[in-house]
Amino acid sequence: MMKIFLSIIFFSISIYGSSIAQTIIKINKAIQYQQIDGFGVLATDHSSKVVAENFPPTKPMRDTLADLLVNDLGLTIFRNYLEPEFELVNDNNDPNVLDLPKFNLQNKVNTACDGDAFMPVEITKNTFLKLKNLVKKNGDSAIFITSIASPPKWMKYNNCANGTDFDYNRLITSEENAKIKPAGISNNDYKEEFAEFCEAYLQYMKQEGISIHGLSIQNNPYFGQPYSSCVYRDSSYIATLNKVGQRIVNKKFETNLLFNEDIIDIGRFKNFMKSFAINSEANKFKKIAAIQGYQTGGIFASSISPSSFNSMQKIFNNYDPTLKIYSTEAGDEFFPVNIINSLKHGKVSAWLYFSPIYSPDYGGLLNNDLSKKYNYQVLKHFSKNINQGAIQVACEATENDLYSVAFQHNKNKTLTIVLVNDNPTESKTVKLSFDESQQVPKYFAQVVSQQPSIMYQSKGIIANTDLITLPPQSIVTIIGEESGMVAANNAIAMTDLNYTAFYNSETNEIVVNANLENHTTVTVRDIHSKIVYETTIPTGNSNLKIDASSLANGLYTCQINEHCFKLKIMR
Q1: CATH number belonging to domain 37-388
Q2: Which fold has domain 22-33+392-481?
Q3: Alpha carbon distance 317, 404 (integer Å)
Q4: DSSP secondary structure code for residue 372 in this structure
Q5: Which residues, listed in sequence order, are joined to residue 445 by a DSSP beta bridge?
Q6: Which of 154-163, 480-489, 518-527 has the lowest mean pLDDT?
Q7: Residue 395 phi/psi, 5° resolution?
Q8: Is the model's pLDDT at 191 over the cut of 60?
Q9: 3-state secondary structure 282-323
Q10: What is each CA distance from 49 to 123, 124, 242, 333, in whole angstroms?
């Protein structure tokens, strides 16, 4: 049995001045909720202005953006819009015979009523491949989801991608024909053509090595807008969804249909789900419920209350308790509170921000020079520390302006707790309380951000019995391992058979001794399982000293061939 030791651990208690009355945060890992698929962002946009900002003209800028999103921010889910220009004209007038070369993969087209400036599908594919490879290097799987901005204009009553007229900015269907009789419009039905439109996109991405995990047939289906949009009644939406679902099943795509993708309007949710639940066709394909974090109007962010999230989640849960919920788009306002409420009360398995780069219309996570804004650091508390496969566990506290959520990682036995103090002037002091029957971390690494000056700072190691002080308008995340590790002095090495590895605080080195006949592979990973050092010791060379000066204080694993040791760096 391998023995695991640590170098000396420092304890910090309250780090922000005088405290106020304590709030007990009760954590019970036995009560478990949804599993997390990840956090994400809109990776390609349909606005010409935003395209220029999201995809700077130089390759180093584009590569830096991708590296920031994946390796620093820890994102694993990426969204794009599929625009109506993808099929400028009908490919062959037969929705059952796909002629993929006739679809618009490359050209940028922006003539009247075609829609917003087209992000070519080929560029989207290249972007997704880059992100896929980066995520794979970190040991995760990239998830790609697509929202359709509008059907092609020739499939619509108004013959236009845009339209604030709710009556005619619609897909031509038999369900709509009974209500809409505009002059010069025949009683055609384009649901099958629209399903072919979706098939063409999924087929192209599949042959290029991209599996689209989720497809939404319409972004905000209740809103007509002066940009690419389309309005659906529940009957025509469900009928169209079923046609696309049938096509996905028949063509054997591994794609879930993201359905609804509406703002949180409880009345609309109830009416929609009542119709959806009695529709037997909807039970034949894979699906994920999709929501967006905006107030009425579908554009501006709002502070969505826990009760609204709870009501929304219960409506979906009554339909199917196993149904996953994704929050596919959210904005800047009330940022940390809305993320926590989405996770804790909405039980979302994925949370996505809108576009990452700043524009006058929304704040963004990064400035145009790719410098990090405060909300970038806020999202990092979640996206970097709550990994794919994490399971939400019970985390309760009753205190105004105090929000909390906790996630268990079964893969690497870590527990992440995110705490938000939304009070603009008062600090809050909390103490953790655990069920005594459960194994929990003895020590936690602590990270803090405080608006506006403190971005994302490590505050060292705390014990699970220490008080935690949250400054005004701040977010604090603590991450701990459940390995039962003990404190020991620096001279004690971690030894197993012929292997030895330890951190020497005097020389600031990780020292590895491996007496083997064959090559020895040494891999050092941080607490997020990201590789920070990797090498192979040739036969006959049994000593290796790794410079640890660039590594932050905290927990690491040192894997020597098939054996894995725990290391703690504390200076």
Answers
A1: 3.20.20.80
A2: Immunoglobulin-like (2.60.40)
A3: 23
A4: B
A5: 461, 479
A6: 480-489
A7: -150, 105
A8: yes
A9: HHHCCEEEEEEECCCCCCCCCCCCHHHHHHHHHHHHHHCCCC
A10: 16, 16, 35, 22
